[in-house]
Write a structure and sequence with these properties.
Elements (H helix, E strand, L loop, with lengths): L3 H5 L2 E2 L6 E5 L2 E4 H22 L13 H27 L1 H6 L14 H18 L4 H26 L13 E2 L11 H23 L8 H18 L19 H24 L4
Parallel strand pairs: 1-4
Antiparallel strand pairs: 2-3
Keywords: Cell membrane, Lipoprotein, Membrane, Transferase, Transmembrane, Transmembrane helix
Enzyme class: transferase
Organism: Rhizobium aethiopicum
Length: 282
């Protein structure tokens, strides 16, 4: 537990304005820029993957660059709508039922990764069927680039001073403006590192080093498992949402853990399925 001396010797939160810049009455927030940066970088990387036939089964890419360009709009809608609806249903339903206008007040809460994942999955299934694209290959190409969005999104959470961590006395602790006069884990940066940088590098190593895209569904499974394990780990350092707190009378179980745990089984199933599908037939 942090001592009084520790709490008095903590680092202040970097004074970063959540508004990146303004154009007349229009304020451009870092959070919005993070979404744009994540989508654009993910799109550029996905186009690179789609253009490399040697990475795919039969040395033939499952989709064209034009199809990928068209999918960006679908993906953006899936992320935004699914992310917001997911936050409402998983974290803020009672408040929205009392005041429905809160549903569009994204500054009161935010977005849910699990909701965004669900929304994007639905968008992928519909788009793949309409364009005759192998569904697991589309899952794989999206899974390979999602860490870009996670990286920039978590950095934006840090800049906004939201989703901060639990009390701590570690030397890199931060005092967040909305977290009281206490030293807290910068858990947003932990997530940016694990869900963003580490997961991106692991998936890239599998794609280029082991040609994992030739086993449709394998990259998807690794991503789902990797995200779930990273999220569960960081939840031990992250303060739970105030309106939910800890679950089942514990002082450790959070909604993030509950939502992420089934993802491990789902990811393992996708990995095993991919290996069985591509295993040599005797």
């Amino acid at each position: 537990m942090p001592t009084a001396a520790n709490l008095l010797a903590i680092m202040p939160f970097p004074d970063i304005d959540p508004i990146a810049f303004s154009i007349g009455p229009l304020a451009i927030h870092w959070y919005g820029l993070a979404y744009v940066a994540g989508i654009l970088l993910g799109w550029a990387y996905a186009r690179r993957l789609a253009a490399n036939d040697s990475l795919w089964p039969g040395n033939t890419s499952p989709m064209t660059k034009t199809q990928l360009d068209d999918f960006i709009v679908w993906a953006a809608l899936g992320v935004v709508l699914g992310g917001r609806l997911g936050y409402i249903f998983f974290y803020d339903l009672s408040a929205v039922l009392r005041d429905p206008i809160r549903a569009v007040e994204i500054w009161n809460g935010g977005m849910s990764f699990h909701g965004g994942l669900t929304g994007t999955t639905i968008a992928m299934i519909i788009f793949a069927r309409r364009n005759a694209i192998p569904i697991w290959s589309l899952f794989d190409i999206v899974a390979a680039v999602v860490p870009f969005g996670l990286l920039f999104g978590r950095i934006a959470n840090f800049i906004n001073g939201e989703l901060w961590g639990r009390l701590t006395d570690v030397p890199w602790a931060v005092v967040f403006p909305t977290g009281g006069p206490f030293a807290r884990h910068p858990s947003q940066l932990y997530e940016a590192g694990l869900e963003g940088i580490v997961l991106l590098l692991v998936l890239a190593a599998l794609v280029y080093g082991m040609h994992a895209l030739k086993s449709p569904g394998f990259i998807t499974g690794v991503f789902v498992c990797g995200y779930a394990l990273s999220r569960i780990f960081v939840e031990f350092f992250r303060e739970p949402d105030a309106q939910l707190g800890y679950l089942l009378g514990t002082n450790w179980l959070t909604m993030g853990m509950v939502l992420s745990s089934p993802m491990i089984l789902l990811g393992l199933w996708a990995i095993l399925r991919a290996r069985r599908q591509t295993a040599p037939q005797l």
